[in-house]
Design a protein that fits this description.
Elements (H helix, E strand, L loop, with lengths): L2 H26 L2 H24 L1 H21 L13 H5 L1 H39 L1 H9 L3 H5 L7 H24 L4 H21 L6 H25 L9 H43 L1
């Protein structure tokens, strides 16, 4: 894929995520859904704030170790300004102290960032785990009502192998994907952030499409909407930092994932219909040509 095509694909994914977020806001503006969402968000926020306050020292130490590891990798590769060495000369030895000071400064700033990301990430992950039982049912019904064409046909069974593959996929991404991200120096934090944002939506996609898609159709939606799922997951993590709006975070996550899945299914079915139409038209032209 060319650079221009990748750029257009990225813009399309961001645009799709923004559309789904706007649709999620509209689907969440209902008293019952909004109250459940706010209650769940406040409960999770209170619990994890207490955990952070109670166990701040070990959590801060873990964040500091991660930050030092990242900063040392960046310094070794020469990617951080002010941390480069000057060889084994006396002048180079005299420059060690400023370089160490800069590394400590980078590590301290990065520790704050890591703490914020860990705090927000664990809140969003807990909301995602509780969302399926607390809020997803009414949100899914409200969203799917906007896609009547998808409700007209019942999904056929896709077989045990497809079901197992769809279940194992996100878990393999959560285990092997995290390991691979951690092995990449300097940008491992960014890669891990993007992976967690994607998995937060990916794990919720199957229950969001329950009743209207089988395993094979869900896999097709994942392949089509993967970029939009990453972008939407990042938007959800950023919204967790916005006061008042973050009270709607559970409803927005559930409704947005439902919209992502339903829009992906509609696009996939349109593509399949267009492919069948082109194939039938091509067959008709070939038959007419052979008759002539």
């Amino acid at each position: 894929m060319s650079l221009k095509a990748r750029w257009h694909s990225l813009l399309g994914a961001v645009r799709e995520s923004l559309v789904c977020l706007a649709l999620a806001f509209r689907s969440s503006l209902r008293p019952g859904i909004a109250l459940r969402s706010a209650g769940l968000c406040l409960l999770v926020f209170t619990v994890w704030s207490w955990v952070l306050y109670r166990h701040f020292q070990p959590i801060g130490t873990a964040a500091g170790v991660v930050s030092v590891f990242i900063v040392m990798g960046g310094a070794v590769l020469g990617l951080l300004p002010g941390t480069g060495g000057s060889g084994g000369s006396i002048a180079g030895m005299a420059g060690i102290a400023p370089a160490l000071a800069m590394m400590l400064l980078y590590a301290a700033l990065l520790t704050v960032v890591v703490l914020v990301v860990m705090y927000v990430g664990v809140i969003v992950a807990t909301i995602r785990l509780a969302l399926r039982w607390v809020l997803l049912g009414p949100v899914r019904e409200r969203v799917q009502a906007r896609y009547p064409a998808l409700l007209q046909s019942r999904p056929e069974s896709s077989g045990l192998l497809v079901g197992v593959r769809g279940w194992l996929g996100p878990w393999l991404g959560a285990s092997l994907g995290m390991l691979l991200c951690l092995l990449v120096p300097v940008i491992n934090g960014v890669l891990l952030f993007l992976l967690l944002a994607y998995l937060n939506v990916r794990f919720l996609l199957a229950p969001a499409l329950a009743g209207i898609a089988n395993g094979e159709e869900r896999m097709q939606v994942v392949r089509r909407q993967r970029g939009a799922m990453v972008a939407f997951g990042v938007l959800i993590l950023l919204l967790a930092l916005v006061p008042v709006v973050n009270l709607l975070l559970p409803a927005l996550l559930g409704a947005g994932t439902c919209h992502l899945g339903c829009r992906g299914m509609e696009a996939q079915r349109r593509a399949d219909t267009d492919a069948l139409t082109d194939a039938s038209a091509g067959a008709q032209r070939s038959s007419i040509t052979s008759v002539r």
